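Morning. Coffee machine broken again, so started the prediction first thing and wrote up yesterday's gels while waiting. Chain of 350 residues, entered below exactly as on the submission form.
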Amino acid sequence: MGFSSCLLGSVLLVLVFSVVHGDPLVPALCIFGDSVVDAGNNNNLYTLVKANFPPYGRDFVAHRPTGRFCNGKLATDFTAEFLGFTSYPPAYLSQDARGKNLLTGANFASAASGYYDRTAELYHAISLTQQLNYYKEYQAKVVNMVGRDKANTIFSGAIHLLSAGNSDFIQNYYVNPVLNRAYSTDQFSDILIRSYSAFIQNLYGLGARRIGVTGLAPTGCLPAAITLFGSGSNECVARLNQDAILFNNKLNSTSQSLQNKLPGLKLVVFDIYQPLLDMVTKPAENGFFESRKACCGTGTLETSLLCNARSPGTCTNATGYVFWDGFHPSEAANQVLAGDLLSQGFSLIS
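Came back before lunch.
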């Protein structure tokens, strides 16, 4: 135990030393996935799933909405800070994603996307398949700027983060009778896992060697999920949480197989299920006072267009709330989650 504590302390000292001296711990940060990590790619899409209006972003830099589904920073924003970056990976479809800004990474995520491409199609979002195509386009731009050798060093040294799966269940499977009658939860999970495996192998084929993926959250504890699927209860929906656990077990075993199969790959599965469940079930112990209701509106359902400047009941201070809207954590919760990501992801930066 003492050795482990000393080792952890030594790693932290190295991290602090590197960042203090102005050097990010990795050359770039590239982000893929859904609304949990979308930094604004949906802003100019023909979709209803957007967050580029108040009160979203009210606690972010300059207190303006950016397209992030949060009152402030996402967990990946805090991660970028922890890694020593002085700016956040720009949304790839934004005006900021050009020139030298791309040398330290980009964000390809799109709200309502998932492992199942038809989930994104339902909401006119950017599928993971298309996100990968944008990543190839991004790589070509980097090669043109710095040359193939240096670009390859950037790609192999960069951390690639993936957050997906929640939308596949909450925004598709559970509300889509065509899907939930055709497939059991177990069968649908297998479909998602096959897509995940293909995505990781494709990313590896493009030179990525450091990849982190988040498991599913305790989806049954999301305020909107309790409202929609809780049958009038005020408690987490056990069935949804059990589905998330089942999926996460498959994600872990598949990831282990991929790591064994692909030489040089560092693949970490981040557990956000337990940290978020702890915040929901023991809010006071984690610095929160409200974990059932979100800050925005009534706190029971509102998200995206329903969470707007006219939503009645929006809280004035979100720091004590685990959730910002019906589906997404607050900045305060994201900061806690980012700390957990850092502690779990040392192998990606070593």
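Strands lie at 29-33, 105-107, 159-163, 210-214, 266-270. Going to sketch it on the whiteboard this afternoon.
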